[in-house]
Structure formats: C-alpha cells, structure tokens
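Researcher: Sequence of Antibiotic biosynthesis monooxygenase follows. Predict its structure.
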Amino acid sequence: MVEDMRPADWWSIEILDAEHAVTSADQWRDAYAQTLVESAVTNGAVQWTWFEFAWGVVLEIAFRTESAWSAWRSLPGTRAALDAVPDPVSGLLVHRGHGGASGGYVPRLPRIAPSADRVALPEPAGA
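Model: Prediction complete. Tokens:
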C-alpha cells in the first residue's frame, strides 16, 4: 500500500479580541479548543497548532485535501464555535495558509548593484 505523500493544506482561523465583547479570544479558545480539535482529527486533520497573541488567538490546522477541510468547516459544531467568537462581525478571519504566526511584513532593502560595473577597464594600447 502506497502512503499518501501529498503535502498538507494549511488553513488559519484567527479570532480577534473585541473591546465591547463579554469574552476574550483566550476565553473562547478555552471553551471551544477541545471540541474543534477533536472533531478536526476525527474528520481528517493531520496537524494543528494554537498561537496566542496580544490581539487574539490563531488556530492553524492542516488537512490532506480541501474537501476534508470543507467537510469539517461545515459541521454544525464547527459552525457553532465560529459563530460564538467574541466579535462575529469583524473578529473572525478564516483563510488558507498560515495566519498571524507568519510574522510581520518587512520590506526588502534595495540590493547593491553587482560589483562587475566597478572593475577598472584596462587602458587601450598605444594611446
């Protein structure tokens, strides 16, 4: 039997704190983490990681296929947990790839031109 060697498809669920909310993103994670991870594993998740930030929490989760992700995402328990985030209007981000743990954007500095244009050329003979 040949093992499936496709790379995992990572997804991120970012839960942001809200000033007007009764609960924080940390409290939401404490309430729903076990249910979300257990249902994800039983529905094909191969890896998951929680990250905590000053602005909220991120669940990065990997499935072998997009259809497995979609099936888990449409489960009533998953939908109920995501509906219960502290700010369901603007405090929930769900997207493909790694989330807030990916690091901040740092622009690239201009590169120095190759040094070949700085080499002195020999003087022409007989000048």
